[in-house]
């Protein structure tokens, strides 16, 4: 998972008292797609030795990615929402096409703001490419006189 792209570490805490299905991962802003690396931690105090799984999310599928900050001692959160919920369907702790990711790295708010600017640029570029492809398909389908 070596990359020179911008990345954010996150976790989705377990929803039960025993700490099962605690998720940890990383979002990477790659050139082609947003990469969602994740792995389950067996228990709260034990790290999993499993390899991280990868889900690639097309930037055009990104409905929104917003930063939510609260008081100083609470960790900032990223709210990830997708237009098509299928990529996140196998990830525990996510809702239908959405996830709340708690950022874990130091200086997370500053890093997240820079990350969101890069994601916004890549998302707008992907949406523009979708429109260009659609217009070229329409132009090719139009009968010539």
Describe the structure.
This protein is of the alpha+beta class. Helices cover 23% and strands 32% of the residues. It has one domain: PH-domain like, CATH 2.30.29.30. It has 1 helix and 7 strands. A 7-stranded antiparallel beta sheet has the order 4-3-2-1-7-6-5. The mean pLDDT is 86.
Number of DSSP helices?
1
Strand order of the largest sheet: 4-3-2-1-7-6-5
**CATH hierarchy class name:** Mainly Beta
Strand percentage lies at 25-35%
Give me the strand/helix succession: EEEEEEEH
Structural class category: alpha+beta
CATH T-level topology: PH-domain like
Give the SSE map:
Blueprint: E1 7-12, E2 22-29, E3 34-41, E4 53-57, E5 62-68, E6 77-82, E7 98-103, H1 108-141
Antiparallel strand pairs: 1-2, 1-7, 2-3, 3-4, 5-6, 6-7
Please provide a brief summary of the model.
This protein has a 7-stranded antiparallel sheet with strand order 4-3-2-1-7-6-5. The mean pLDDT is 86.
Essential attributes:
single chain, 145 residues, alpha+beta, PH-domain like, seven-stranded antiparallel beta sheet, 7 strands
């Amino acid at each position: 998972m070596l990359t020179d792209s911008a990345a954010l570490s996150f976790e989705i805490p377990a929803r039960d008292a025993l700490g099962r299905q605690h998720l940890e991962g990383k979002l990477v802003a790659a050139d082609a797609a947003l990469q969602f690396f994740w792995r389950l931690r067996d228990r709260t105090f034990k790290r999993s030795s499993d390899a991280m799984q990868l889900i690639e999310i097309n930037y055009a599928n990104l409905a929104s990615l917003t930063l939510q900050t609260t008081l100083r001692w609470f960790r900032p959160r990223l709210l990830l929402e997708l237009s098509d919920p299928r990529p996140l369907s196998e990830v525990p702790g996510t809702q239908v096409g959405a996830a709340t990711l708690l950022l874990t790295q130091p200086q997370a708010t500053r890093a997240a703001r820079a990350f969101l600017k890069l994601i916004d640029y890549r998302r707008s570029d992907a949406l523009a490419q979708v429109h260009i492809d659609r217009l070229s398909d329409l132009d090719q389908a139009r009968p010539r006189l």
